[in-house]
Specification:
heterodimer, A: six-stranded mixed sheet, six-stranded mixed sheet, 48 strands, rod-shaped, B: alpha+beta, Beta-Lactamase, 2 domains, 5 helices, disordered N terminus, transport (chain B), Longin-like_dom_sf (chain B), Trafficking protein particle complex subunit 2-like protein (chain B), Sedlin (chain B)
């Protein structure tokens, strides 16, 4: 006996063994169908007793094992059911012969046999036999079970008779010695009459009877017999049989204690047993009929007590098993018995939940040497050990043995390695190594399990699946290995694993589909979330020029506030919510969107990632995959993935897609808790038009203004210069441009800026809307730079010594100093002051083009295009000093400007109608401009400070037209004309302004009906009375006067001598003094007088005034009394008149 | 920065060391007593230079923190041996755990014998397991000596844990621990 039945369990001792075998040619599947039906009759209740007979069916049984039938009767084949196909009557005799020859194999032990014949057509000539049943086909055999039951009953009858026969055989002359096959030769020539021998025979027979009783369902008798046998055999030191008797005792006790059986689910026989007979359902404390109740009377209490006494307790069972096994261990040939006993004991211990002791039994079983085992037997042995370890909860040990079994399947000694079986067994070891093939189990928290052994197992799985010829599985396992064990792989191993992975994927690329094995196991896809490792995912806003903006009014309407508070410092969200948080900005349908990932490569070599793209949901999205190559063990590396949303709505970035080493993976962010993200949901708004801006001026790359600009231009201008900037806007999008708005904003205005910096006319451009895609529109923008033209203090002092008084006011004096242009150039004081003038100033402004159109406009979105205008302003001219001189007319005055050319070129300055003034580089000259005085009263003037800014319109007149002609010094270029305007706005100080102001009291002198002013010579005739009218108009706010005016005539000899003694040359008609009463505001007062010139000549009238309103205590400023001096030329009276 | 670190380290480690001492005292294991054991063992071991062939420290979550075996070329075998021994360790802990979890003996005794080796186990109160594999042929090694080896190992492990730069759960990379383990292993000759 060399082949152990690892499936055995203690309760098998109460079964009778029936072999079911095919005879002749029987299709395998048909045979097993019949076998299953036969095997369903595993328990038969014997009709006239309460006993049950349990049957164990085998379709394969070694006759060699049958020889041990005397030792343990459940090993004895007592029944044979042959299944055969017999097509015709002709074949019948041959079939019958075969049946008989098969019967002979187990002949010695058979109690009864049956032949089931299938497929027979027609009649058999022979007479009806009880042991043969005919069925027309394998399908049509309704009473197979019934037949088997009858058969079992017949076996029972034989069994019962044998039992009774042996049990009562005490008085017989001689008890035969039962022995096991290997013992036979030991007893040759032994003294059969010795007491020792007889006792041995008795003991062995007792044990045998015990077995029979157990099989016949008489547990109590069996226990009694076993006890007796143990005592008998112990006294004669018959260890092998003593072991058997002890084991029998154990088995009977186990059957008593654990009616549910000890085999558990491992043996598939129990379910059929349960359904075999209805009564088996009460699996609890099933009532077991004992020998004493064999006559049909149910067990009384005494039998229960007796049974309890004979029966072993749970502890004792194990003790006795140990003892039995130790006895078996004494015999090398009883290895199988010992092994089976160990297995049975382990099953019992597993039920008792005594894992430690069970493991000791198993440990013992491992060491039992059964001699030369075939590879198949080894596999079987390791598998069963694994199963048993699993049974007692030693999952690691179980996995270990399963793995050994798997390795045994493909041992080098096997000619045809069973890779498939190996793979299947290896898969079964996974739970033992706390390994699941779902990478999700590894993404949470730290690694669990023993990495070294897990890695080994995965390697083996990879190898086995490759040898199986399933590269897809290899790729999946290898991917899994790489993904989950990355932290434990050494650099060398990483290289090896990836190399082999690449080899495999060249044949069978890895994907994201679930692989299903033939046995139904599903291998979930492995996503390489660690190749490369992603640290953060950030959705990027569109470039500034493409960003959509919501119209303000609409934005407020759409504001959905979850909280009643506008702001709360308590931010209540978790990380997961953050991931789903909606991002502030929007993406636009049809525009390329970007997501930035921070990645790094954990591998010690360059990692090539191909087809890296985004995985999104919510919106139709066209991902544009990228390929990247990360250097070995790179640091964090930004990678931008792009794509185009094709529809509008909310888009969620779920993850990314990669292809590494030929394995494509979809890495979802929800499975990657370590990835930082500030939200993955973004609104995609309907498409908007897109403008491209180009300008006539050169572009500037750097942005000086704060904030982001789409583009900016830079230009260099002289102060006062004007430049035209042509802006071309082209619609390069796919939507019509429907609205366009332009605005500008000047930034960093530290400099005083006069006038409008940027001006444009949008009407023409707007008239071309809507702008179709591909069309363009132009817009001309004027850039005017007017900075302060006033010079610094240094220069002011420089020219201050020319003797012209600014403060001295020769009000009513006719004296004018003729300005002589200063030809000589004043050298500048120092270098530092020079640099002061050469300082280049900058002006910056941002032009904003708001535009919208298409579906996005309907939703209330627009886009901004910004253009930064950067102007470097070089100084051109400076008005270093300004003063006024009264002009000959009282209504006018001369503005004296010291103009300094700070450029390196010659320039021409012209003002109003004056002649051009040519200024060489760094030259300073004075120019006088005659300007009309103006009236401030016509303008609202809250205070003097505001004056400067509020009267630019008037000052416009005073603007100097500075014409700068610049001659380029280089040889090749012709001279370039540039011109601009310089404004005196910033130059005029209050004092000068006062002089430029018209006095509030306006005096009009009318001589001879003609208004008179300084430079107007009134003609009159000698002897004629010349009417003189002085009119005072009060434009001040207060009433003025009364005044007294005295008209004093004099003659100027033009040599400094003035002759006032003209009493005889000029006479007044009436008084030469006028009185003017108080003049109320806006009113006027006129005094009339007359003069009579007695001689010809040039006369001047000096109108002196005397303020009689001294009582008011307020002195009016003298400049208010700027009365013109009157120049009258008295001519000879006509001759005809004079005669 | 560096100087500040240097001054902080001893302070911190001292602090945690005393804490651990208290913990150990609660568990009935005094450091002083184990020290005396160690000394005695040291004297004893001169006669018996051959001791363990494999020493492993296993984390609470049953993954190895440290494993070292003497025939380095066949390390995986010991990985399997130690890994399977965890079944027995778990069984023993659960068996005892029900009764008196507090006063459980840390030393688990012989876990299981294999053909060539004997595997001994020891579990700290924080469920960190120590496993020592001894050659079966080494009959001179008695239970008491195994015990003291475990105590020595436990002491050294405690020192490792006291290192403020050691993250519990990381593999042990300590020279001091290494040398203690090496002293317990069979000499290469």
């Amino acid at each position: 006996m060399s082949v152990p039945d690892y499936m055995q369990c203690a309760e098998d001792h109460q079964t009778v063994l029936v072999v079911v075998q095919p005879v002749g040619i029987v299709p395998e599947d048909q045979f097993f169908r019949i076998y299953k039906r036969i095997a369903s009759v595993a328990q038969v209740s014997i009709r006239d007793s309460q006993r049950n007979l349990y049957i164990r069916y085998r379709h394969h049984y070694l006759p060699e094992n049958n020889e041990w039938g005397d030792f343990q009767t459940h090993r004895k084949v007592v029944g044979l059911i042959s299944v055969t196909t017999c097509g015709s009557a002709k074949e019948w005799p041959q079939t019958l012969d075969r049946f008989h020859s098969q019967k002979e194999v187990f002949g010695a032990t058979l109690y009864d046999s049956r032949l089931l014949v299938f497929g027979l057509q027609g009649e058999i000539a022979e007479q009806q036999r009880t042991d043969v049943a005919f069925y027309s086909s394998y399908e049509d055999c309704p009473n197979v079970e019934k037949r088997v039951e009858d058969f079992v009953e017949s076996i029972f009858i034989v069994l019962e008779s044998k039992r009774l026969d042996r049990a009562t055989d005490k008085s017989g002359d001689k008890i035969p010695l039962l022995c096991v096959p290997f013992e036979k030769k030991d007893f040759v020539g032994l003294d059969t009459d010795s007491r020792h021998y007889k006792k041995r025979c008795q003991g062995r027979m007792r044990k045998h009877v015990g077995d029979l009783c157990l099989q016949a369902g008489m547990l109590q008798d069996a226990l009694v017999h076993y006890h007796m046998a143990v005592e008998l055999l112990r006294s004669v030191n018959d260890f092998l049989w003593l072991g058997a008797a002890l084991e029998g005792l154990c088995s009977a006790s186990v059957i008593f204690h654990y009616p549910g059986g000890t085999a558990g689910k491992a043996s598939g026989r129990k379910p059929s047993l349960a359904q075999g007979q209805g009564q088996a359902a009460d699996a609890g404390k099933r009532h077991r009929p004992g020998a004493l109740t064999a006559n049909g009377i149910s067990a009384d209490t005494s039998s229960e007590i007796g049974r309890a006494k004979n029966c072993l307790g749970p502890e004792d069972i194990i003790e006795k098993y140990k003892e039995a096994i130790s006895y078996y261990g004494k015999y090398k040939n009883a290895g199988v018995i010992e092994l089976e006993a160990c297995v049975k004991a382990v099953r019992v211990l597993a039920i008792q939940k005594r894992a430690m002791e069970a493991s000791e039994f198993l440990q013992n079983a491992v060491y039992i040497n059964l001699g030369q085992l075939s590879e198949e037997e080894k596999i079987q042995r390791y598998s069963i050990l694994s199963e048993l370890y699993h049974l007692i909860g030693f999952h690691r040990k179980s996995a270990f043995f399963k793995r050994v079994a798997a390795m045994q399947c493909v041992a080098p000694t096997i000619p045809e390695p069973g890779w498939r079986a190996c793979y299947k067994l290896l898969l079964e070891t996974l739970p033992g190594y706390s390994l699941s093939l779902d990478p999700k189990d590894f993404s949470k928290g730290s690694h669990c399990g023993w990495a070294a052994v897990q890695m080994r197992l995965l390697h083996e799985l990879v190898y086995a699946s490759r040898r199986m010829g399933n590269p897809g599985l290899s790729v999946r396992h290898l991917s899994f290995l790489l993904q989950t064990m990355l932290d434990f792989l050494s650099d060398q191993e990483k290289k090896e694993v990836t190399q082999s992975l690449e080899n495999y994927t060249s044949k069978c690329p890895g994907g994201m589909e679930v692989l299903t094995l033939p046995d139904g196991l599903k291998l979930p896809p492995v996503a390489f979330t660690k190749l490369p490792i992603i640290r953060s995912v950030k959705l990027l806003d569109l470039p500034v020029s493409l960003r959509p903006h919501k119209q303000k009014g609409l934005l407020e309407n759409n504001m959905s506030t979850k909280s009643p508070f506008i702001y709360s410092p308590i931010i209540m969200h978790t990380r997961g919510e953050e991931r789903n948080k909606k991002i502030e900005f929007q993406w636009v349908q049809g525009e390329v969107c970007e997501v930035q990932l921070m990645v790094y490569n954990p591998m010690p070599f360059e990692l090539r990632v191909e087809h890296m793209g985004l995985l999104t949901s919510g919106v139709e999205f066209e991902a544009l995959p990228a390929a990247l190559s990360l250097p070995a063990e790179s640091g964090l590396y930004p990678v931008t993935l792009v794509g185009v949303p094709r529809t509008a709505g909310n888009i969620t970035v779920n993850g990314y897609h990669t292809s590494v080493f030929g394995v494509t993976s979809d890495c979802l962010l929800e499975g990657l808790p370590s990835v930082l993200t500030s939200g993955c949901v973004v609104e995609v708004i309907p498409s908007l038009p897109r403008l491209q801006l180009s300008t006539s001026l050169p572009r500037m790359t750097r942005n000086l203004c704060p904030g982001e600009l789409s583009s900016s231009v830079s230009v260099q201008l002289f102060n006062g210069e004007t430049q035209h900037l042509t802006i071309t806007l082209e619609n390069i999008g796919s939507e019509d441009l429907e609205t366009l708005e332009v605005a500008s904003k000047t930034c960093n205005t530290k400099e005083k800026l006069f006038g409008e910096f940027l001006s444009w006319d949008l009407d023409e451009a707007v008239s071309q809307l809507p702008l179709k895609p591909g069309q363009s529109v132009t817009l001309t923008v004027n850039i005017k730079v007017r900075l302060d033209f006033s010079g610094g203090e240094n220069l002011l002092q420089d020219l201050n010594d020319d003797g012209i008084s600014v403060t001295g006011l020769p009000i009513s004096s006719p004296l004018r100093q003729v300005l002589k242009p200063r030809a000589e150039t004043k050298p500048l004081g120092s270098e530092s002051s020079k640099t002061d003038y050469n300082h280049v100033k900058t002006l910056e402004a941002v032009m904003t083009f708001k535009y919208s159109g298409g579906a996005g406009k309907v939703e209330g979105y627009y886009r901004d295009l910004t253009l930064g205008v950067h102007v470097d302003i070089e100084p051109s001219v400076f008005f270093t000093r300004v003063s006024t001189l009264p002009a000959t007319r009282t209504r006018q005055c001369h503005l004296l400007l010291d103009v300094f050319n700070s450029t390196e070129h010659e320039l021409t300055v012209s003002a109003n109608n004056n002649q051009d003034l040519v200024l060489h580089a760094s030259e300073c000259q004075r120019m006088a401009i005659q300007v009309d005085k103006f009236d401030f009263d016509t303008l609202p003037q809250p205070d003097q400070e505001a004056l400067r800014y509020t009267n630019p319109k008037l000052l416009e007149e005073e603007r100097l037209h500075a014409q700068a002609s610049m001659i380029n010094s280089t040889l090749a270029h012709p001279s370039v004309r540039r011109q601009g305007e310089a404004s005196v706005e910033g130059v005029l100080n209050q004092l000068v302004l006062e002089h430029l102001q018209l006095a509030p009291l306006q005096w009009d002198v009318v001589v001879n009906g003609k208004p008179c002013d300084c430079d107007i010579i009134a003609d009159c005739r000698v002897g004629d009375a010349v009417p003189l009218e002085v009119k005072l108009t009060n434009r001040s706010k207060n009433a003025v006067g009364p005044f007294a005016l005295t008209v004093v005539p004099f003659q100027d000899y033009q040599n400094g001598v003035q002759n006032y003694a003209l009493q005889d040359a000029v006479t007044f008609i009436g008084s030469n003094t006028f009185y003017i009463d108080t003049v109320k505001p806006t009113e006027n007062s006129v005094c009339m007088g007359a003069l009579l010139f007695l001689y010809t000549g040039d006369f001047y009238l000096n109108i002196k005034f005397q303020d009689d309103s001294a009582g008011q205590g307020k002195e009016l400023p003298p400049s208010w009394f700027g009365l013109p001096s009157v120049h009258i030329k008295a001519l000879e009276a006509p001759i005809e008149a004079g005669a | 920065m560096l100087t500040r670190l240097k001054t902080q380290v001893p302070l911190f480690s001292m602090n945690s060391y005393t804490k651990l001492r208290e913990k150990l005292k609660l568990s009935g294991l005094s450091l002083a007593s184990t020290h005396s054991h160690v000394i005695r063992l040291g004297r004893h071991s001169r006669h018996n230079s051959k001791m363990a062939v494999c020493i492993a420290v296993i984390a609470k979550e049953n993954y190895p923190l440290f494993i070292r075996s003497v025939p380095v070329q066949n390390e995986l075998k010991f990985h399997y041996t130690v890994h399977t021994s965890l079944d027995v360790v778990e069984e023993k802990i659960s068996a005892v755990g029900k009764a008196m979890a507090d006063q459980r003996e840390l030393y688990l005794g012989l876990l299981y014998p294999t053909e060539d080796y004997k595997v001994y186990g020891y579990v700290t109160n924080s469920k960190v397991k120590f496993v020592i594999v001894v050659d079966s042929s080494n009959t001179s090694l008695r239970d008491n000596e195994i015990r003291s080896m475990f105590r020595k190992l436990h002491n050294s492990f405690t020192d490792v844990m006291c290192n403020p730069f050691y993250n519990p759960g990381d593999t042990i990379q300590s020279k001091a621990f290494d040398s203690i383990v090496s002293a317990m292993m069979v000499q290469a000759s």
